[in-house]
Amino acid sequence: MQRLFITGGTGYLGGELVRQAYAQGWQVAATYFSHPPQVAVDDARLLWLSLDVRDMLQVEEALDAFQPDLIIHTVFQQSGPDLWSVTVEGARNVSAAAQALGIRLIHMSSDVIFDGEREGAYTEQDAPSPVSPYGAAKAAAEQFVTEHVPEAVLVRTSLIYGFTPIDRHTRFVLDIADGRNTAQLFYDEYRCPIFVGDLAAALLELAQGDYRGVINIAGAECMSRHEFGILLAQHHGRDPAQLSGSLSVDSTVRRPRNCRLDSSRARQILQTPLRGVRTVLDSHPATANE
Question: What angle do CA 248, 154, 166 make, to 5 degrees?
């Protein structure tokens, strides 16, 4: 029985990783910080740990006590005063401890590490060129992992969405459609959204192999934030006409516009399907009550 350590086990991706890994028979230790698990499973195969990844001593003690075969590091902070300390220093602490203890590491990164100015898709060979504070933090975390844990896996992914529970991207769209938010969705920002179940399954499959280095794992379809919003609104029984759009290029804040990821390498080495948004939505029962 392999032992898996998941940071951010109560986060959106982390929670799905816990569910799938537990179902597959892994011995799992999952961490939380501000959001304790809602349901504590009374099972020796699932251990919940309160952990602040910014505290190196806590990280070292937790890993040394559990002795995992693998760490999947999902913790991040997207904005606010703790952006750098959680996203960068947390990644440094986890990766440094993994290296010192000889534990394999899968580190989660993002497509927003790029400036988004190219026309085509970004491959694993492309160097980060961030234009946002969050992108800069994720790029810095990547750099530390690359330099200090050369055998680690760095997974660059895109917008993560799902149904149970609804993800924050979908909730944002539904709030606009229901009149609780007046924000606009960009016509000229392109991403490759990935279903959380597909991403978690791909990560656990990746964990069974010996891949090392950067790998892109994103959905099969590239679409604008506005198009993505339209599809989500329709699927959840909302009127897509309520979603207005605008151009990111006209925004006062510089944002990466084309964050398309080339995931052909992942499709070559993994059996897990990395489905496009339409395929996922077509396979999931529609509901108007969410």
Answer: 55
What pLDDT score was predicted for residue 59?
A: 98
Contacts 24+ apart (CB under 8 A), 265-270: 265/123, 265/124, 265/215, 265/216, 266/202, 266/215, 266/216, 266/217, 269/209, 269/211, 270/202, 270/205, 270/206, 270/217
Q: Which of 52, 94, 50 is closest to 70 using CA atoms?
A: 94
**CB neighbours (10 Å) of residue 5?**
27
- For residues 82 and 90, is the Cβ–Cβ distance under 8 A? no
Position 105: which residue type? L
The pLDDT value given to residue 206: 97
Helix axis angle, 12-24 relative to 196-207, nearest 10°? Answer: 50
Tokens matching residue 274:
């990395």
Percentages of the chain per state (helix, strand, coil), in multiples of 5:
40, 20, 45
E-state strands within 66-129: 70-73, 104-110
Other residues' Cβ atoms within 10 Å of the Cβ of residue 265: 16
Tell me the three state secondary structure of residue 248. Answer: helix
SS3 of residue 246 by DSSP: strand
State the average pLDDT over residues 170-181.
96
| pLDDT above 90 as % of the chain | 90
The pLDDT tens digits of the residues spanning 108-162 come to 999 999 999 998 999 999 999 999 999 999 999 999 999 999 999 999 999 999 9
- Furthest-apart CA atoms within the chain: distance in Å: 54
Domains of the chain: 3-226+229-283 (3.40.50.720)
CA neighbor of 95 nearest in space, from 115, 79, 71, 116: 71
Distance CA 159, CA 9 (A): 18
